[in-house]
């Protein structure tokens, strides 16, 4: 199921390198440490700051018309939040909750961010890259949630986790996590029971191994 193109598409090392190279662009941001389940921002609130995840994880979600929560993404190291304000969208379109204890988020007010963009072309390029990635990934996630079958949703969710948080190992990709099966169910728009059954099925077929702290996806599978 997870064929070679799955791993080539991730480009984990290149993504990590890009984050490290551009780290100096964010050295003027104020860093705050959060506890798990702290609310970073809520839907509809005025966006006054540009945010960057320095370490840890942030859960980005929205509520549908029935009041059900859907997880759009887990944002990890190097991810930018609030960038759409730079395109005159002054209010958050979703909400964000700290997903991991000790998560560090760097902040800078929008006015200062705009000044940095004017003065630093490299910073502008980096922000534009994040805006493009954000819009592309958001459109893709919504399409997956509402137009794909549940197995495909789980596959794509695991692919996103591997891309954003995975670590290359000799025989596969190791994804550290603290997700419950309920979290995964919310992420793919299904019940906890269905998510549990699918994870067990994937594990029995050798597609992955799953425990409370790690998901491991081997390169070679029977």
How would you describe what is shown here?
The structure is a single chain. It is built from 7 helices and 12 strands. It is of the alpha+beta class and 222 residues long. The chain has 2 domains: 14-147, Jelly Rolls (Sandwich), CATH 2.60.120; 150-218, Orthogonal Bundle (Arc Repressor Mutant, subunit A), CATH 1.10.10. The strands form 3 sheets. A 4-stranded antiparallel sheet has the order 1-8-3-6. It has a 4-stranded antiparallel sheet with strand order 2-7-4-5. Strands 9-10-12-11 form a 4-stranded antiparallel sheet, with helices on one face. Helix 3 (110-119) crosses helix 4 and helix 6 (181-188) crosses helix 7 (192-204). The longest helix is centred in the middle third of the chain and has 27 residues, at 121-147. The N and C termini lie close together (10 Å). 27% of the residues are buried.
Write out key terms for the chains shown:
222 residues; alpha+beta; Jelly Rolls; Arc Repressor Mutant, subunit A; 4-stranded antiparallel beta sheet; globular
Apparent shape? globular
- How big is the Rg? 18 Å
Helix count from the secondary structure assignment: 7
Spatial arrangement of strands, main beta sheet:
1-8-3-6
The fraction of residues assigned to DSSP E strands is 15-25%
Q: Secondary-structure element sequence?
A: HHEEEEEEEEHHHEEHHEE
What is the straight-line distance between the termini? 10 Å
Q: Briefly, what CATH class of the largest domain?
A: Mainly Beta
CATH architecture title of the largest domain: Sandwich
Question: Helical proportion?
Answer: 40-55%
How many domains comprise the coordinates?
2
CATH homologous superfamily (4th level) name of the largest domain: Jelly Rolls
CATH topology of the largest domain: Jelly Rolls
Mean pLDDT: 81
Major beta sheet, specifics? 4 strands, antiparallel
* Regions with little confidence, pLDDT below 50 for 5+ residues: 16-21
SSE class: alpha+beta
State the total count of DSSP E strands: 12
